[in-house]
Structure formats: C-alpha cells, structure tokens
Design brief:
The protein contains 11 helices and 8 strands. The protein is α/β, with parallel strands linked by helices. Nicotinamide-adenine-dinucleotide (NAD) binds next to helix 1.
Length: 283
C-alpha cells in the first residue's frame, strides 16, 4: 500500500487514469486542473473505472468508496505544496510543460519528487527549468493507465539515483512493471512504436486496404490486441502528431514526420476517441 500524497497536474486522458492508479494503490491524490468541469470529468473517469471493477467483483463497493474518497481536486498549484510526488500530465508541448514545472518549483516542498508523464519530450530540459534538477525524472504511464502494466522511468543524466529509485518504487507500489530508460526522444516504446503507427496512417491514406482491414490485418497477422489506426485514435491524434514531430526533430529521420492525413485530421479537430472522431468515429 502506498502512503503519502501524489499530486497530478492535468485532467485529460492520462491525468484521470494516473489518479485512478495512484488512489487504488493507497496514495492520497490531489489533481490540479484548469477548470472545475475538466476536474470533474477526470474524477468521473475514476468513478467509472471503480464501478467497472465492482461489477466484475474485483473490488467491493466499500473498497471502491475508500479509493474514490482519496482523490481530491484543485485549481491552485498552492494545494500541491505538501505532495510527496507530483506527476505532470498536461498537453505534449514543451512550452506548456516548462511553465508547469516553473510553477511546481515555486510551490512544491523541497523534498518533493517532480515527474513528467511526457511521451517524448526532453525530461532534462524540464528538469533544468527548476532549481532542483536532480529531483526530476519521467514516470511514463501507458494508456489506459489502469490496464497497462508498463511504466518507463526516464532518468536524465543529472537525476539523483535516489530520486530515480523513489520513482521506481512508486511505480512498483502502483502494481506496475517499471523499466529504466535514458532520456532519449521516445524512450523505448514510442521510439519503436511510432514509425509503425505513422506508416499505418500513410498506408490508410494510400488506400492499400480499408482502415478496418488494416487494423484487422495487424491484429490477426501479428496477434496485436488492437490495430494501429485504433491505437492512434486511443492515444489522441494531436498527441500522436506532437510525439512524431519530436521524434522527427530528434532523429532527422523522415519516417517520423507525421503524415498529412494525421495533420489534416488534427487541423479539423478530429483528435480521436477523446473528441468522438479521428481515423474512426465513436459514439
Ligand atoms: N494519450 C496517451 O495515450 C498518452 C500515453 C502516455 C503518455 N501521454 C502523455 O500524457 C500527457 C497528457 O496527455 P493526455 O493524453 O492526457 O492529453 P489530453 O489531451 O487528454 O489532456 C491534456 C491536458 O493538458 C491540459 N492542458 C492543455 N493546455 C494546458 C496549459 N496551457 N496549461 C495547463 N494544462 C494544459 C488540458 O487541460 C488537459 O487536462 C502528454 O504529455 C502525453 O504525451 C499520453
């Protein structure tokens, strides 16, 4: 069982998911959102996930209520002041994340571990935004956070071994399987996964097969649990484009440049599951 308080900044897909995981592991959670509406929608994700586990008899209603009562929300950075670990999970944009880390540096207690859930951005650059760069690392959960077992612990060269060990121990307490990765764009998983996803979108645009058949082929032919186009929609096409742009800049490899189909969908506001439409349409 975890003890102490975990602060989470960001109330999107991953912020709500990490809140669920940390509260389920026993931590008190305080989630910082930009609006009451987005905080409540992140909490609704937690409530729905708990309800599913009660229905499947993985939790009793009493346990679910206890977990739910451990999640609080705020609109103020000041309320993260007593958190032991803070995980930033806002949009995949360096300027936005740097601004968040500057706020966290001002408000969090000196011993707090500051972490980012970034998919690809430089953790070192974020660490250097603070006055405590040795206490900053990546704690990269996967989507959906409550189901995916992996957590990448991203360790910049300037990170203290003790801070990296705290992050690893937090992930283990959350029931996850941590792997330690150097701070290189895309870490392990996204550096290997995104060329494949980008090429699947390229193939969809070329009309090699229907979108459905591309996904069916990769599920049936490679035993993947989901097809690449559905996975892009699950990640979010805006987040996917940001990841590809970072990988492209870091490697210079043209294979990483987001294909026009993805750019056009994002431009049109079709961001995937979270907006109801992306490569596929959702109810
Ligand atoms: N979606 C995935 O599959 C996935 C998986 C692992 C990691 N991540 C990473 O998690 C982070 C969050 O992604 P997500 O999928 O939850 O995105 P999302 O679009 O669902 O949510 C983004 C959040 O960022 C907040 N935000 C946007 N602009 C902001 C600003 N200027 N200041 C403060 N907050 C702002 C939004 O209000 C929202 O709460 C990203 O770094 C992403 O790369 C995403």
């Amino acid at each position: 069982m975890g003890t102490g308080t975990v602060g989470i900044v960001g109330s999107g897909i991953m912020g709500g998911g990490i809140a669920d995981v940390a509260a389920s592991a026993g931590y008190d959670v305080i989630l910082k959102a930009r609006s009451e509406a987005s905080a409540r929608s992140a909490l609704a994700v937690v409530t729905k996930s708990l309800g599913r586990r009660v229905a499947k008899e993985k939790l009793t209603q009493v346990e679910a209520d206890q977990i739910g009562s451990r999640v609080a929300w705020t609109l103020e950075y000041a309320d993260l002041g007593e958190a032991d670990i803070v995980i930033e999970s806002v949009a995949e944009d360096m300027d936005i994340k740097r601004a968040v880390f500057a706020e966290l540096d001002k408000t969090c207690k000196p011993g707090a571990l500051l972490a980012t859930n970034t998919s690809t951005l430089s953790v070192t650059e974020l660490a250097l935004t603070t006055s405590r760069p040795t206490r900053v690392c990546g704690i990269h959960f996967f989507n959906p956070a409550n189901l995916m077992s992996l957590v990448e612990i991203v360790v910049p060269d300037i990170c203290d071994a003790e801070a990296a060990a705290e992050a690893t121990s937090f992930a283990t307490t959350c029931g996850k399987e941590p792997v330690s990765v150097k701070d290189r764009a895309g870490f392990v998983v996204n550096a290997l996964l995104f060329p494949y996803l980008n090429n699947a979108a390229r193939m969809a645009a070329a009309g090699t097969a229907s979108y459905e058949d591309i996904d069916t082929a990769m599920k049936g032919g490679c035993n993947f649990p989901m097809g690449p186009l559905a996975l892009l929609d699950l990640v979010g096409l805006d987040t996917s484009v940001s990841i590809l742009n970072t990988l492209h800049e870091a490697t210079g490899d043209a294979n990483f440049a987001p294909v026009p189909l993805l750019l056009e969908l994002v431009e049109a506001g079709h961001l995937g599951r979270k907006s109801g439409r992306g490569l596929f349409t959702y109810d």
